[in-house]
UniProtKB/TrEMBL annotation:
Zinc finger (C3H1-type): 263-293
The name this protein goes by in its record: tRNA (uracil-O(2)-)-methyltransferase
Organism name: Helopsaltes ochotensis
Annotated EC: 2.1.1.211
Keyword Zinc: yes
This protein's encoding gene: Trmt44
Length: 296
């Protein structure tokens, strides 16, 4: 609806309608196929010649739609825009009816044919505003989207949080002496204890928590981003033990094996630098560099 010259590409993923989660209406199709048909229908209603394609990507949801040309002339824009408004309103009516049915109220008669085709009349006030707004309450995404997955936080801040949390986990466990630090002795390397995210948060200062709260996922996202050091499972934080990690599969495609090899020892080993017992793996087995001289 942004302009007559607009073209589009869409890769449907999560099952959502205009006003909430998409509700299934056909049991003979898979949920994915039914949703794809709905997304294609949106393109047809908007007056596009809709083309379907399957992308060559490693995903179970890889069917895409492309709209490169219109089925109507530029002079018919007002009529098509009204048709789109009616379609959106028909979907809203169905969404409300589905919600009411879940609490025991039967709206089948009220919903009628609105669920099938864009032929119903929208409320009068919304018909008048069809040419000035896309749909009531619609808010387009900002042109510049703020990155809030902890990736844009200052490196010094992230390093400080990682070190504090790691020390917290290490100090929660009885200290063990390390007799074979370089060899990665299985019996002496201190893996620390596991703590819940709540327990970890209670040991961080208010200023740190306030900065993390403005990020999506907060503390959990920051710890998961630091995959080398931590493992977060079922809401509990563990120090990652690289001795337990599965070795790279020999059956991987050649391209993936090559990429994995190229990433070997491109970053310093956090455990070699900060862990009181050093790294649990010997230098030749660790995917990270034990000192700057090993960096690639």
């Amino acid at each position: 609806r942004s302009s007559y010259s607009c073209c589009y590409f869409v890769l449907p993923c999560c099952f959502f309608d205009f006003h909430g989660k998409y509700s299934r209406r056909q049991s003979k199709k898979t949920q994915y196929r039914e949703y794809l048909d709905f997304v294609a229908q949106v393109g047809f209603v908007c007056g596009f010649h809709v083309e379907e394609d399957c992308l060559r990507i490693p995903s179970t949801k890889r069917v895409s739609f492309v709209g490169k040309s219109r089925t109507y002339g530029a002079a018919e824009r007002a009529r098509i825009d009204q048709q789109i408004t009616q379609f959106i309103n028909s979907r809203r009516t169905c969404a409300v009816a589905t919600c009411d049915r879940r609490v025991g109220f039967n709206h089948e008669k009220h919903c009628g044919d609105l669920c099938t085709e864009a032929g119903s009349e929208p409320p009068e006030d919304e018909t008048k505003t069809a040419g000035t707004i896309w749909m009531p309450g619609f808010q387009p995404r900002e042109k510049v989207e703020q990155i809030r997955n902890c990736a844009s936080l200052p490196r010094d801040f992230v390093d400080e949080v990682v070190l504090n949390v790691a020390n917290l986990l290490l100090n929660a466990a009885p200290q063990k002496s390390c007799s074979d630090k370089q060899g990665g002795n299985m019996n002496t390397w201190n893996q620390g204890e596991s703590l819940s995210l709540r327990e970890v948060a209670e040991h961080l200062n208010k200023e740190t928590l306030k900065k993390l709260k403005s990020e999506y996922g907060g503390l959990q996202t920051l710890l998961k981003n630091n995959h080398q050091v931590f493992e977060v499972l079922n809401g509990r934080v563990h120090i990652r033990d690289w001795r337990k990690e599965k070795p790279p599969s020999k059956t991987k495609p050649e391209v993936k094996r090559r990429l994995s090899a190229e990433a070997f020892k491109t970053r310093l080993c956090w455990f070699f630098i900060h862990h009181p017992d050093g790294c649990s793996l010997p230098s030749e087995a660790c995917p990270y560099a034990h000192g700057t001289e090993e960096l690639r």
